[in-house]
Structures are given as C-alpha cells and as structure tokens.
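Hi V.,

You were right to ask for the full record rather than a summary. Here it is.
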Amino acid sequence: MENFLLEHGLPALFFLSFLAATLLPLGSEWLLLTLVLQGLSPMQVVAVATIGNVLGAFVTYGIGIWGSDFFMKKLLRVDEKQSAKAMEMFQRYGTVSLLFAWLPIIGDPLCLAAGILRVRPLLFLVLVSIGKFGRYAFIAMLIG
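Predicted structure:
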C-alpha cells in the first residue's frame, strides 16, 4: 500500500488527507514529508494535503448536520467522552476552537460539533483551513 501511495504522489496525498479527516484512523503527514523529500514543491504538496483534509472535515461537519447516531458513533468512532470534550471546547472558546480541528482525537469531534451547532459553512471553512494549512506548512518547513 505504501508503494502505491508513493507512486501516485499528489492524488494519493489528496485521497489520504481526505480519509484522514473522515472515516479512518490514518495519518497523511508521512506522505507529505516523503513527497517534499522527493523534490515536489512544498507549497503544492501543502496545498493538496490541506484541500483534501478540509474536504474530509466537511464530510464530518455534514454528518453533524444531517447524520445519525450510527454515523457518529460507528463510522466516525466518536464516543461520548470525545463528543463532550468537543462541546465543552465550543462552549468555552466558541467557533475559534475550529482552528484546532487538525488535532488528533479531538479534531473530528470538533468538526462534528460544528455541524450539530450549525456553524456557518464559510466560517467553518476559514477556521478549519487555517488550522489544517498551518499544521501541514509547519511539517513541510521542518525539512525545508
């Protein structure tokens, strides 16, 4: 599988970044680093990873708006504790907490909570994009 992803470069990064923000417990950072080390443009790699990851976050946001308990608990693996923590963050910090949607464990529940609380889509897009772009850019700069 690893070779398949490496052979397909940017499309594979987009797909992996998308899935990492939705259904599967995956990480896309390793592929981002590998592609930069192979000589691809860091800005291009960061842009592709960010777009894929943000679109994946929109899926989770949509599940929050229209989803059922099945999607939330079985598909996204969000348990009551994670959900409560995300709601607490929203109550404490408001929509600004979406800047941390890139964090493991709490990121998916934050996107889900944003959907449940009906955060405006444009605000969701801006905040989640800033956070996810910042993470990928930082990772790419580590080797640049």
